[in-house]
Design brief:
With 349 residues, the protein is α+β, with helices and mostly antiparallel strands. It is 34% helix and 32% strand.
Length: 349
Amino acid sequence: MNNIKQFIDNYFHNKFTEKEIGQALKELSDTKNSIEIGNLMTNHWEESEKRIPEKIDFDLLLHKIHHRINMIKQDSKISSVETASILKEKPATLKFILGKISKIAAILFLPLLLTFAYYLFFGVKETKTEPGIAFNKVYTPLSAKTKFVLPDSTIVWLNSGSYLKYPFVFPNKSREVYLSGEGYFEVAGNEKVPFVVRTNELNITAYGTSFNVMAYSDDQTIETTLVEGRVKVEKPDTKSFAYLEPSCRAVFSKETDKLKKGKVDTRFYTSWKDGKLIFKNEPIDEVAHKLERWFNCTIIFENGELKDYRYTGNIEMETLREVIELIRITTPIDYTYNKETREIRMKSR
C-alpha cells in the first residue's frame, strides 16, 4: 500500500517516472485495492481544499470518461505488435490520456483510467508459441472495444469480452486467426492467400471481405454476418458449409448442430463497432444479454413472462441508467438498480 500511496502522491504532483508507471499500473488495477485508493484520493482532494460539486451526475461523468477512453484507444490505431514498445518509446502516452480528461474526472476515477491503461500496456499482448510460429493475443475487457491492424493490413474490431489470437507474421500460404467473442473484420485483399477466422465450432474463410463473427463461448449460437465480398462458413468435423453473399447472415446452432442463413439488415449486427446498439423488435432477454456485455452489468428477470416482451430502439451515448429508464418507459417493466454491484432486477408492472 505504500507503493500505491507514493504513486498517487506522484500523480497529484506530476512526478511520474517510467518505472513507477509500469509497477503502479498493476497494483492500482487490482480491484481489491479500490477502497484504499478511493480513500487516498479523497484525502488529497480535501487537503487541496477543493469541493466536489453537489449536483454532479457521476453516472453520466463515468460514462463520458469511458466513452472518451475508448475513442482515444481506437483513434490511436495502436496494433498489438506495437504495444510492447510503448513504454520505452512513448512514456508520455499515459500522461496524454490522463490529460485529455478533466481534472475532476481524473481524480475521481483514477482507478478506471489505470485499469484501462493496464489493459492497454499489459493485458493487450500475450505471446504464444507453436513450432516455428510466434502468436499474439489481443484482449478486450468488458464494456470496451478495441481496434487494431493485423500484419497483413486487415483491420479488426473486437467487442466487449473478446480475444483474438494471430501470428506475428502470417505464413506465405495461410492467414489464420482464432476468435473467441465477437469481431468485425475488414480483410486485406489477397486472392492467393485466404483469410480464415477459426472459432470452436466453425471456420469462416474470406479473401477480401468485410464481415462480423459473434462466437462467445457462453452463447448457444455462432453468427456470421457479411457486409461485402463473399465468405465460406464451414463446420470442419461434418464438412457442411454455406457461402454467404452481401447482406446475408448465417446462424449456427450448437444445440441442433445446424446452420441456417438468410437476408438481413447488417446494421443490426455490425453497429457495435461504431459505438451503437440497434434493436428492432428484439426479445427483451436478448437485449439484456447484449446490455450486460456493453455496460459490464448483470440483469436479472424476476418474472418469466418478461421474456415475452420485445424492444426497439438505438443506444449510443446513453448511460446504463438512461437505457434502463428507456426500457421502463416503453415496456411495462419496473426495475431496481444496485449501483455498487451494477446489478439490475426487472419485474412486471
